[in-house]
From TrEMBL:
It comes from Ambrosia artemisiifolia. This is Peptidase S49 domain-containing protein. GO terms for molecular function: serine-type peptidase activity. Residues 115-264, 363-513 form the Peptidase S49 domain. SUPFAM superfamilies: ClpP/crotonase (SSF52096).
Length: 535
C-alpha cells in the first residue's frame, strides 16, 4: 500500500460499524465524524507535517512492498491518519495473496470503506485474485489487474484431514477422550473420514462465509445475488470478460496505473509519482495530523496464537506466564480506565487458559474489560474472552468450541515393528497412565475419561455463569461446536458485532468516558495481528 501525496483537503469522514440499533446504548458503535479543520488547526497540521515528511524522503518512494509481517493495527492506523492528512490524495493498494482469516479481512475492508468517506480515492491492483483478495479489492473505488492476472473466483471450500489410516499403518493407536459431540480436533487422529457432526459445523460456517461474500460483493458492485452466483458457477477466467462484466475497472499493468495516477494528480510525465510506502508512513505520528489521544487511557493487550503455559524468550503464541504479568501490571496501574483484550487463538493448553481466565476475571473486578475477537477465539481463546464484561466479534470470527480433547498415543505395535523395547518399573496404580508403551487398562481409561469430563464441566459452567445462562442452556450451544460471530451473537456467546473501533467505544462507555472524548491506547502485545501478505 502506498499513499499518493498532495496538498488537497477533503470532506467528511465517518467510520461506521455493523450495529444492532436496539443495543447501541449499551454497546455503542464506535462511529466518529471527521470535522473540517479550523484555519488554525489546518495551519498546525501543515506545520507538523512539514517537520515529519522531509525525514521520510517521501518523493523517493516510487514503489515498495509490504513485508510478510504486515500488522493489522498499523495498517488500520495508517488508513485513519491518511484520511486526515492533507498531504495524502489517496491510497494505491497492492493486494497480494492474503494469509489471514476472514475476521482480519473484514476489519481491513471496513477501514478501506471508512477511508473512502474522506473523499479521497483508493485504487486497488492485484495480479492474483481469489475470493478473499477480491472481497478486499471490491471495497476500492477502482480495481485494476494486468492482462496475465490469475482469477479464480470459483467458490469456497473447506476441508478436514484425517491421519487415522496413516497411524494405523505405522502401528500407533491414539486414545482420545473427546467431550462434546462437535469437538472435532481429535477426529483427525482417530478417524478415516468426517463425522456427521463435523460436517454440519463446517457446512454451516462455510455457508456463512459464502453468504457474507456474496452479499458484500453485491453491495459493492451493484449486482444481484443471482448474477454473482451465476458468475461463480460459470468458471470465468478470461480477464477481458471480467472487465466486460464490471468485476474490474480496467486491464492495466502496474506502471500504467502509476501513469494514470500521475495524470489525475496533474504531475508531469517525467516526474516520479510522489508515493510514501506503508512502512515509512507508519513512522508518522498520529499527533502530526491532529489525532493524538486524550488524557484518559485504555490498555490494549493483544493475544494471538496457540496457548502455552510457559515458553522461552523466542516462543511464539500466547505464553500464559507472560500474559499474566501484563494483566497484573495493568490491573495494578491507576493509569488505565479500561482494558481491551484482542484475542486471535484457537486454544491450546487447558491449564494455561484457566490461569489466564482467572487473571482477566480479577482485572474485570477493578476495570471494565472488553474482549475483541479477531479471526478466531475458540476453545481456550473463548475461555479467555468469557472473563470479560463484554465480548465483541466480527461476523465471521470463529468462536465457541466449548469442549475438551485429551489424548495419548499407544505405540506398542510400532515398537514391535521396529524391534524397540522398554522395561518400566513403577509404583502406584496409575503411575503408567500416560505411558506410550501400551493401551489403557480399563481402570486407567475410566480415570482418563473422568479427568477430561471434569475439565469440560468446569469450562461449560464458567461459560454459563459468565454469559448469565443456565448450565442446561449453555450445554445446548457448547458441546465443542464452533460458531461464526454472527451465529454466536444470536446464541448469547457474543454481545456485539464489530472490530477494534467498536471495542474502544464500548470500553469508553463502560468506563464512563464521554463518547466524543479522545483516549490514548497503550498496546501490550503477546504477538501482533499478522496479515501475512506480501503486497
Amino acid at each position: 500500500m502506498s499513499m499518493a501525496s498532495s496538498n488537497e483537503n477533503h470532506g467528511d469522514f465517518k467510520s461506521r460499524l455493523d450495529i444492532n440499533k436496539d443495543d447501541e446504548d449499551e454497546y455503542p458503535s464506535g462511529e466518529f465524524e471527521y470535522k473540517t479543520p479550523t484555519a488554525w488547526k489546518s495551519f498546525m497540521v501543515n506545520l507538523r507535517m512539514l517537520l515529519a515528511y522531509p525525514w521520510l524522503k517521501i518523493n523517493d518512494q516510487l514503489k515498495s512492498r509490504f513485508s510478510s509481517g504486515l500488522s493489522l493495527p498499523q495498517l488500520c492506523e495508517n488508513l485513519i491518519k491518511a484520511a486526515y492528512d492533507p498531504h495524502i490524495s489517496g491510497v494505491y493498494l497492492h493486494i497480494e495473496t492474503l494469509k489471514c482469516g476472514w475476521g482480519i479481512t473484514e476489519e481491513i475492508r471496513r477501514h478501506i470503506l471508512d477511508f473512502r468517506k474522506s473523499g479521497k480515492f483508493v485504487i486497488g491492483y492485484a495480479p492474483k485474485w481469489q475470493e478473499k483478495e477480491y472481497y478486499l479489492g471490491c471495497a476500492c473505488d477502482e480495481l485494476y489487474a494486468p492482462p496475465s492476472a490469475y482469477f479464480s473466483l470459483y467458490g469456497l471450500t473447506t476441508q478436514a484431514i484425517f491421519f487415522g489410516g496413516v497411524l494405523e499403518k505405522v502401528g500407533v493407536q491414539p486414545q482420545v477422550q473427546r467431550i462434546g459431540k462437535y469437538k472435532s480436533y481429535g477426529d483427525m487422529l482417530t478417524r478415516k473420514n468426517i463425522s456427521e457432526e463435523n460436517r454440519e459445523v463446517l457446512t454451516t460456517v462455510l455457508d456463512n462465509i459464502y453468504g457474507n461474500w456474496v452479499d458484500k460483493v453485491c453491495q459493492a458492485k451493484g449486482k444481484r445475488k443471482e448474477e454473482i452466483e451465476s458468475f461463480i458457477n460459470e468458471g470465468v477466467y478470461q480477464i477481458e470478460k471480467l472487465k466486460e462484466d464490471g468485476w474490474i475497472t480496467d486491464i492495466k499493468y502496474d506502471d500504467e496505473v502509476t501513469s494514470m495516477l500521475k495524470t489525475r494528480l496533474g504531475i508531469a510525465e517525467k516526474k516520479k509519482l510522489p508515493l510514501i510506502d506503508y512502512k515509512k508512513y507508519s513512522r508518522i505520528k498520529k499527533w502530526s495530523v491532529g489525532l493524538s489521544g486524550g488524557k484518559d487511557r485504555i490498555a490494549v493487550i493483544r493475544a494471538s496464537g496457540k496457548i502455552r503455559r510457559v515458553g522461552g524468550s523466542s516462543s511464539s503464541g500466547i505464553i500464559a506466564e507472560q500474559f499474566i504479568k501484563k494483566i497484573s501490571k495493568v490491573r495494578d496501574s491507576k493509569r488505565y480506565k479500561a482494558v481491551i483484550i484482542r484475542i486471535d487463538s484457537g486454544g491450546g493448553d487447558a491449564l494455561a487458559s484457566d490461569l489466564m481466565w482467572r487473571e482477566i476475571k480479577l482485572l474485570a473486578e477493578s476495570k471494565p474489560v472488553v474482549a475483541s475477537m479477531v479471526d478466531m477465539a475458540a476453545s481456550g481463546g473463548y475461555y479467555m474472552a468469557m472473563a470479560a464484561h463484554t465480548i465483541v466479534a466480527e461476523n465471521l470470527t470463529l468462536t465457541g468450541s466449548i469442549g475438551v480433547v485429551a489424548a495419548k498415543y499407544n505405540k506398542e505395535k510400532l515398537y514391535e515393528k521396529i524391534g524397540f523395547n522398554k522395561e518400566i518399573i513403577s509404583k502406584g496404580r496409575y503411575a503408567e497412565l500416560f505411558s506410550a508403551d501400551r493401551s489403557f487398562r480399563p481402570e486407567e481409561e475410566k480415570l482418563f475419561a473422568e479427568c477430561a469430563q471434569n475439565f469440560y464441566k468446569i469450562f461449560r459452567d464458567k461459560a454459563a455463569s459468565s454469559r448469565s445462562m443456565s448450565v442446561d442452556k449453555m450445554e445446548e450451544i457448547a458441546q465443542g461446536r464452533v460458531w461464526s460471530g454472527k451465529d454466536a451473537v444470536s446464541r448469547g456467546l457474543v454481545d456485539a458485532i464489530g472490530g477494534f473501533s467498536r471495542a474502544v467505544a464500548i470500553a469508553k462507555n463502560k468506563a464512563n468516558i464521554p463518547h466524543n472524548k479522545k483516549v490514548a491506547n497503550y498496546a501490550g502485545r503477546s504477538r501482533g495481528e499478522d496479515i501475512g501478505s506480501n503486497g
